[in-house]
Specification:
The chain is mostly beta strands. It has one domain. It contains one helix and 17 strands. β10 and β11 form a beta hairpin. It starts with 7 loop residues before the first helix and ends with a strand.
Length: 203
Amino acid sequence: MRVRMGGLALAGAAVLAMGAVSSATTWTVRPGGAVTAKAGITRVKDTTTNSVLNCESSRMSGTLKGGTGLPGTGIGAITAAAYDCAMLIEPPFRLTPHGLPWHLNLATYNAGTGVSRGTISHLELTLTGPGCSAMINGTGGSAAAGVVAVSYAGKTGVLQIRPGGGNLHWFHVSGCAGLLGDGDPATISAAYPVSPKQEITSP
């Protein structure tokens, strides 16, 4: 676990870009179907203590609905996820997903940039390692209630889990040498190229 302890024309363009963002009620996804996604460094952070677990990589796979006139809620399902957080510690830290399938939900679309934004919900993770265990969730209960904010760029085919806009917290912290605090906000950040690349637009 690697931990960090310690002009007018432009304004007009910005206004146009902001105006292009709209809440979306229906979506078009092509081709849809089975997808896989692999990220490089995946960061999991306690934003109160600024402790960071840097996993070398992470992977997700699942399905996307394909077609037109699709609702944004539940437009995709993440059925498997895995994290490589070995680092140079024995035994290694492990980040284990729970609550699968996670739900991909889309809410807004920027026609100017081709970027869709939404959430992944129903998320829960447990962290285990030498002298440390904890849960990441939206609440301290047993039900998977975590939410993270995501964006998908149609031009690049990259799905990003963004560090802001979610409800994640650390719960049931045991040990961890003060690096994690029970109830502290948690964030996850990673960039996942999606294969096959998807065209997602609204309407």
